[in-house]
Amino acid sequence: MAHPSSQRAALGPSPNMPPAMAEIKSQAVDKVLEEMNRMPLFMTNLDETDGEGGQNDALEALRALAYEGTRAEIAENFRQQGNDCARTKQWTDAKEFYDKALAALRGPQNNPDPDAEGPGVIEVELDEAEEARKEKAIEEACHVNRALCNLERKNYRSCIQDCAQTLRLNPSNVKAFYRSGTACLALDKLPEAADACNRGLVLDPSNAPLAALKSKIAARKTYIESVEKARKERETRIAAERVTLQLALKSRNILSRSTDTPPDLEDAEIKLENPLDPSSTLTFPVILLYPTHAQSDFVKAFPEKEKLDEHLDYIFPLPWDKKHEYTTEGVEAYMETSAGGLIKVGKKMSLGKVLGSGKPEVVDGLATISVVPKDRAADWIEEFKKRKGKN
Question: Can you give the residue ranges of the Cns1/TTC4 wheel domain (predicted)?
């Protein structure tokens, strides 16, 4: 079997490689990739240097080309790049290109050098009217397309501003009306959304997106109106219930007041069985205090017709009452009066009658009853009087 080297010898001498390829062949793979990344066609990241701190001439040449030509040509170049990004839904990049296009339109006009000489120089005369027409068309397109970018990025106010600028340039731009209407709808600016939509439909009555937008605006308006109607009805009902409750308390001679620091009763509250009927049964939240033992129980709903002993029967015995001092027969109950004194609460008297005596008061929607063992009642009353500064 012939040796590979003898086969190559039989084929004759191989041609010399071009100098550039021979140089690459002698380089490491990493070095080759680094050099390729410096070439605009093969770049995977933006490289700014050229060897030892210099400029990347190829990249700078491409950048310079982006700003070669008249304002309209430069702006059109950026606009097309923006359109390419928009087609692939790269909204941030597309917006930046439209920004550059609009900035180019505000920049100086690159007129041909009048002193240029030589066979390669082509004389160009700018038609100012034609250039102005091109610039206006590009400006309109950039604003309406940037409006789309802002709409997709949920920058609704910026979208509306771009649409307004578009319509200043061309009051018949249907896309601007559609995008402005969509942004206004997103902000719940329904009158403005409807106005933009209707103006667009006047220009293009068969425009399907505008027709769909009009339906969305109408549906949103109906929903908001229904929510507002329900809110007003709820507020009216709450106000009526509040007035009815005050009337029920007044008609029963029950005193009540509010403080600046009401307790958190969660969902417990004074309420009527029928919120709009002052004669229906009243129910109160009641806290039972055991002051001699610093304990308490909370009754969320104590109807006015029920008696204290009916509740004590199911509350007693108390889990912490080791001496069994608290029995329905072995305790007395008291309520503080509006004047700062005490009244004894009959355990077989309905809560409504106790409160209706006009002496105790319901504070912050809560009735408070102190329950003490009979053999400790006298001492507790004396302590209460001392605390209140009374003899």
Answer: 275-384
